Amino acid sequence: MAVVAAATWVWLGMVLAISFLEAPLKFRAPGITTVLGLGIGRLVFRALNIAELVLLAIVGIGLLVAPGGAGAVWLAAGAAGVLAVQLLAVRPALSRRTAAVLRGEDAPGSRTHLVYVALELLKVGLLVALGVIALS
């Protein structure tokens, strides 16, 4: 379970650092326009999502090799489910809006970011719980 714990805490750290620190702060940096911030955000979140998939695979393999009980499996499945919703439903909607802004179009406001943040908070809770169980 040490590998599961390590992958979970790394995953949690990446989500916290990027979603709750880098993403909002980049728009406060001097000289960063909305277009530039969105372009950077696309690259950063694409990299984060790839890293999350790799870490999820490590967690999954770790749970197969050294089962941690039903609680760990359910928490990992919950985090996987949240990530799947983000990647398959929310990110495409955000990407369409970002692409429109990057093309110079006047894209209407969207609550999709709030949905993404809510899912990130849920994922953070699941990862904290999984990390604690994996260390037990």
What does this structure look like?
By secondary structure, this protein is mainly alpha-helical. It contains four helices and no strands. The chain has one domain (2-135). The protein is 84% helix and 0% strand. The protein is elongated, with a radius of gyration of 16 Å. 22% of the residues are buried. This is Transmembrane protein. The chain crosses the membrane at residues 50-66, 72-94, 114-135. Keywords: Membrane, Transmembrane, Transmembrane helix.
Strand-and-helix sequence, N→C? HHHH
Cα-atom radius of gyration: 16 Å
Low-confidence stretches: none
What structural class do the secondary elements suggest?
mainly alpha
Tally of DSSP β-strands: 0
Quick structural gist:
With 136 residues, the chain is mostly helical.
Helix/strand layout:
Layout (H helix, E strand, L loop, with lengths): L1 H25 L7 H32 L4 H33 L9 H24 L1
Keywords, please?
136 residues; mainly alpha; 4 helices; 0% strand; elongated
